[in-house]
TrEMBL record:
InterPro entries hit by this protein: Chap_CCT_delta, Chaperone_TCP-1, Chaperonin_TCP-1_CS, Cpn60/GroEL/TCP-1, GroEL-like_apical_dom_sf, GROEL-like_equatorial_sf, TCP-1-like_intermed_sf, TCP-1_chaperonin
Quaternary structure and interacting proteins, as annotated: Component of the T-complex protein 1 (TCP1) complex. Heterooligomeric complex of about 850 to 900 kDa that forms two stacked rings, 12 to 16 nm in diameter.
Species annotation: Phascolomyces articulosus
Recorded GO MF terms: ATP binding; ATP hydrolysis activity; ATP-dependent protein folding chaperone; unfolded protein binding
Protein name: T-complex protein 1 subunit delta
Length: 530
């Protein structure tokens, strides 16, 4: 290993000490290993990974960020690639695999240059400049879109879904993603979407076909039926409470010994009176649906209070999770109430209908027709088993993020390896105008970009060399949108196949990959701290 790493000792080449070279090489090898592990899951013909987590759960996924998140990576440089993929997930949401593959390819290119004796800082900075240039080229290629152009949004969302298990359902999931995002935002003014406003509720049962977009709110919890309360309520006034409808309990454990049965009656009577007063206060405010937050200290409701609420015709849903409270309050336009004294009608939310529906063996509560609704929307995600369900949720999240990217940066580019080859050629031409070492670095960067089309061709079982050569040829003759058509196994105009992606996904991938490469190249020593 050490023999290979030493550059030829020429007069003017950069001569490094042994250790930094070793460290750099080990970092590059580790990071490339991560890239190779994830490479096979790129593109519409990419394979899936089955991950067994520490507690015995099994995750089957195609999403780069998820795979890396579950992988136990020990090498610190390889961890940087995991963070890179997470950063891409936050920034763009899609293209998490491509960004890691691109980064490992750039590192391979950097390794070759280091062996030629070019200084690492020169390489790193040239790469960053090349990445900036690439982003400019991409922006020139892109076509601006309008958010009212639903067709383009749908095509971008279904391209994102094509590489997932749920690809045959893309005609169903893509419209759901597009509609969900367009409902949450005001297309004229916004330039970002809060994905938290779109709540995905997962229920095992049925098939992916049963996935639906609910204009309203979907609750995972069931209606409490034990006391015979109503399960359907029209013109609902909904109260969201964070206190318990059960007798108060002291903080310390204690026992009361009662030796007189009259006292006993009195205690029971007090309890009834206490609960009755609470229920009456709730009824007085005009509330007829109660959502009760899960309680840690004691039962949220007991049988007696349920009986009173049923008598008063109030529908009860208990065990609402803490982290759902904010979303529910925003959706219904109600305010969470922490104490029965402050329970008044201005804290309530209004809805036309709240009912418990049963589909494919599991029950959910749907709230529709909100009056003062915030802009939120719920997606009910179904799947035959938990593995499919999780994966379909992840794919839906990617599709939502793609639409979000188009809201952030309203421009589209072709997919299928077309933009990478195009940028690669433009960089090659641009490199010829530069001088010195930088020219070499730009050429290496341009060659490294070809990893994406190469990998796409490999994963589809085509001959990567002939395909990429043909692609270069087409692009050199000015066919800017020629890309790999995986279904037919040839090169076609990729726009006719409707394979398009948001500009933001590619630009952020290039910027982030170049940054990570710069970070890895600038490291020249590994020191263990105590």
């Amino acid at each position: 290993m050490a023999e290979v790493a030493k550059p030829a000792p020429s007069k003017n080449s950069f001569q490094d000490k042994d250790k930094p070279t070793e460290v750099r090489l080990s970092n590059i090898v580790a990071a490339k290993a991560v890239g190779d592990a994830i490479r096979t899951s790129l593109g519409p013909r990419g394979m899936d990974k089955m991950i067994q987590t520490g507690n015995g759960e099994v995750v089957i996924t195609n999403d780069g960020a998820t795979i890396l998140k579950h992988m136990s990576v020990l090498h610190p440089a390889a961890k940087m690639l995991v963070d890179l993929s997470a950063a891409q997930d936050v920034e763009a949401g899609d293209g998490t695999t491509s960004v890691v593959v691109l980064c490992s390819s750039l590192l391979a290119a950097a390794e070759k240059m280091l062996n030629k004796g070019i200084h690492p800082t020169t390489i790193a900075e040239s790469f960053q400049r090349a990445a900036q240039k690439s982003v400019e080229f991409l922006a020139e290629m892109s076509t601006p879109i309008d958010l009212s152009d639903r067709e383009s949004l749908l095509r971008a969302a279904s391209t994102s879904l094509n590489s997932k298990i749920v690809s045959q359902y893309s005609s169903l999931l893509a419209p759901i993603a597009v509609d969900a995002v367009t409902r949450v935002i005001d297309p004229a003014v916004t330039d970002n979407v809060n994905i938290k406003d779109i709540r995905v509720v997962k229920k095992v049962g049925g098939t992916i076909d049963d996935t639906e977009l609910v204009d309203g709110l979907v609750l995972n919890q069931n209606v409490v039926k034990s006391a015979g309360g109503p399960t359907r309520m029209e013109k609902a006034k909904i109260g969201l409470i964070q206190f318990q409808l059960s007798p108060p309990k002291p903080d310390m454990e204690n026992q009361i010994v009662v030796n007189d049965y009259r006292q006993m009656d009195k205690i029971l009577k007090e309890e009834r009176q206490y609960l009755l007063n609470m229920c009456k206060k709730i009824k007085k405010s005009g509330c007829n649906v109660l959502l009760i937050q899960k309680s840690i200290l004691r039962d949220a409701v007991n049988d007696l209070s349920l009986h009173f609420l049923a008598k008063l015709k109030i529908m009860v849903v208990k065990d609402v999770e803490r982290d759902e409270i904010e979303f529910i309050a925003k959706s219904l336009g109600c305010k969470p109430v922490a104490d029965v004294e402050s329970f008044t009608d201005d804290k309530l939310g209004y809805a036309d209908l709240i009912e418990e529906t049963e589909s494919a063996g599991s029950k959910i509560v749907k709230v529709t027709g909100m009056k003062h609704a915030g802009k939120t929307v719920s997606v009910l995600c179904r799947g035959a088993n938990s593995l499919v369900l999780e994966e379909s949720h992840r794919s839906l999240h990617d599709a939502l993020c793609v639409v979000r990217c188009l809201v952030k940066k309203k421009a589209l580019i072709a997919g299928g390896g077309a933009p990478e080859i195009e940028v690669s050629q433009k960089l090659m031409d641009y490199a010829k105008t530069l001088k010195g070492m930088e020219q070499y670095c730009f050429q290496a960067f341009a060659e490294a970009l070809e990893v994406i089309p190469t990998t796409l061709a490999e994963n589809a079982g085509l001959n990567p060399i002939s395909i990429v050569t043909e692609l270069r040829n087409r692009h050199a003759h000015g066919e800017k949108t020629a890309g790999i058509n995986v279904k037919k196994g040839t090169i076609t105009n990729i726009l006719e196949e409707n394979v398009i992606q948001p500009l933001l996904v590619s630009t952020s991938a290039m910027e982030l990959a170049a940054e990570t490469v710069k970070m890895i190249l600038k490291i020249d020593d590994l020191v263990q701290s105590r």
